[in-house]
Amino acid sequence: MTRARTTARPRKRARLAPAALAAALVLTGAAGCSGKAGGAAGDKQAEDGLKTGKGVSATAIRLGALTDMTGVYASLGKSVTQAQQLWVKQANASGGICGRQLELTVRDHGYDPQKALAGYTELEPEVLGFAQFIGSPFVAAVEDRVDGQDKGLVIPQAWSASLLGSPYVRTIGATYDIETVNLIGYLLEQKRIASGDKIGQVYFEGDYGENALAGAKHAAAEAGLTVVEQKIKPTDNDMSAQVAALKQAGVKAVVISAGPRQAASLVGVAAAGGWNVPVVGNNSAFSPQLLATPAGAALQKDYYVAASTLPIGSTEPGPAALAAAYTAEYPGAALDNGVVAGYSAAGVYGEALKKACAGKDLTREGVGKALLTLKSYDGGFGITHDFSDPKAPSTRQSVIMKPDAKTPGGLKVVKEAGVVPAAEKYTPAG
């Protein structure tokens, strides 16, 4: 069966190039034609007048989590998942939501496209929606199905602008392109680079890296910079060739839009070769575990990371309370920004559930509409978010951080939440 496609976002499929993902899409398409009821087909009225549907019973609200605990984002995936399990435990201890206890069903896809999409197909009929889905290309691969027939709210731990526009797939924070503009803006503010300079961009092939690259090109055009590109795969862990190429090109700074391992390799190789330039990375390009590696010292010297939340090591009330609760629940577990990302996503989902409950519509569509009413949501992590427009990111602000082994979670704030002028005027390529 073939579904008609709208023309609102024609570039989405074109961005999903890897062959493995294309094969997985066949599986997803087959599942979408299985004849299972989706959306409003299973909705029903409860005795108390509450309208409910898939994933909601008289006693429980079931949510799904599609995570990476064994792949390129394993350390962050574990933190995101445990933080969401903590949120569920806390919510249930407070009486649950709408008189129901919350349940979180987790599947590890190991950043494998077929496992990710098979996990979605498995869980979709059983849950109200997904409080976690790691991997921009995997989320993009199911977005048409989510919007067209499933209609379950998905909050991904992915920030590609290609995900904007969906009423049901809603990111929390600045998209990768805006985040990259803010990072380059920080380097310009600090006079680390100037008009006429070359900057390098090392990026994953696919949605994440290419969206970040779009932001870098916009920032470069605004500031009179030249971008030197180095595309890599998630399986490329040695950045020696990329460092050599960028050094030869004479770049004055590097943006890395990849995973923690690639960031550690790039910074470590550059330092070992005596190449001293600032390196900035998107929110996915750091893990505190890196500070215990040979690259740890170099990362603390001149590496910077952006995110749309305060770090877990912040002394502000929100992060401090979460760090204490997380450490008590998971003694010995690493603190990193995955904890904040996971807990924040669960918190946003919880607010949408509460609004939907108040409106007597706890169906998938009811929850999606309820999220649109959150216009000034502040979960206590430094930035206020507006979810009223699915076509816009919930914020354009980024917090700029620097690795620091003495700070819990390994990151300290060097610039409070803000947005540079070039990011204010930029239109995400959704």
What does this structure look like?
- This protein has 430 residues and is an alpha/beta fold.
- It folds into two domains: 45-174 and 317-371, Response regulator (Rossmann fold); 176-307 and 398-424, Response regulator (Rossmann fold, 3-Layer(aba) Sandwich), CATH 3.40.50.
- Helices cover 39% and strands 16% of the residues.
- It has 13 helices and 13 strands.
- The chain has helices at 19-32, 74-93, 113-123, 136-150, 176-189, 207-223, 240-249, 260-272, 296-302, 317-329, 337-358, 364-371, 421-424; strands spanning 44-45, 51-52, 60-67, 101-108, 129-133, 198-204, 226-232, 253-257, 279-281, 303-307, 361-362, 398-403, 411-418.
- The strands form three sheets. A seven-stranded mixed β-sheet has the order 7-6-8-9-10-12-13, with helices on both faces.
- Strand 1 (44-45) and strand 2 (51-52) form a beta hairpin.
- Helix 7 crosses helix 8 (260-272) and helix 11 (337-358) packs across helix 12 (364-371).
- The longest helix is centred in the last third of the chain and has 22 residues, at 337-358.
- The radius of gyration is 21 Å and the shape is globular.
- It starts with 18 loop residues before the first helix and ends in a 6-residue tail after the last helix.
